């Protein structure tokens, strides 16, 4: 049932290219929902955990590409902070399981005040029955507790939604994502070797700017969940506002820096942490000589993956890194302690 892989998580990471391909077949459904929804002046994403990180990417897309003001709210905070809903607001609820209690409660509260759309992986789950509109991620069942292929499928639906609402040029680039992911998966041996050299540290930092910032948060969440190593994701520009005090000799800092307008600024942040002794793990374009030069370790991805589509591709090596660190530490990545696949209590 694990298809020859040692763990479901590893199998599910390797299924990411096909999860994206299958989700792209939902294009007609996306067009249909966009037509039904009609005019939208504001977007409000609501989700938890990894689904929240997918939502954050949505904010960069809707605001950056379409100029639609977008909020992203943690479902557990929704009742304390969702003031701006009205009939021209589209509230988007992202949930792999469609059963997360916090997300369902927020959905119920929003249904009478806004247009609601649920983006869900599990067919027929509660969120699909309660939302006014539904789109499915076509990732197939995910057994590993840590979300992997469902995350990239959620991102795929969000990108399609943005394409359908006014940025059709995204679709060509989305079509190439599975191929970029396949290339990233081929480098697994290098990542396994890297994991073996950093499995006994106590802290890890992940930094990124713009589209790379949600990737930093998601990379850190994967690490915490399955390796029990303390991992923090930061917007690279926030470093000097506090976290830099924690950077010491040998602390791994994963610097996520795809080609794009943020590249040079992130590189200066890399120089700052390096000057304080950090061990820099650069994640960038394979032809990025400047990042490679500043980094102790380097994970190279296809140069055609720019910052806008980077969330879909740059997360792949980070998931693999957490997976291999977990295995290296003798843990079971499929069953992290204290966590459940589906959180049905508040
Ligand atoms: C992390 C993870 C959790 C879920 C969160 C929301 O790997 O799996 O953070 O993303 O519990 O779950 P859903 O998406 O089912 O609402």
From TrEMBL:
Keywords: Aminotransferase, Cytoplasm, Glutamine amidotransferase, Repeat, Transferase. It comes from the Archaea. Its EC number is 2.6.1.16. Coiled coil: none annotated. It catalyses: D-fructose 6-phosphate + L-glutamine = D-glucosamine 6-phosphate + L-glutamate. GO terms for cellular component: cytoplasm. One of its GO terms (molecular function) is glutamine-fructose-6-phosphate transaminase (isomerizing) activity. Residues 33-176, 194-336 form the SIS domain. It is found in: Cytoplasm. The active site is at 341 (for fru-6p isomerization activity). GO terms for biological process: carbohydrate metabolic process; fructose 6-phosphate metabolic process; protein N-linked glycosylation; UDP-N-acetylglucosamine metabolic process. Homodimer. Catalyzes the first step in hexosamine metabolism, converting fructose-6P into glucosamine-6P using glutamine as a nitrogen source. This is Glutamine--fructose-6-phosphate aminotransferase [isomerizing]. It comes from Methanothermobacter defluvii. The gene is glmS. The chain holds residues 245 to 590 of 590 of the full protein.
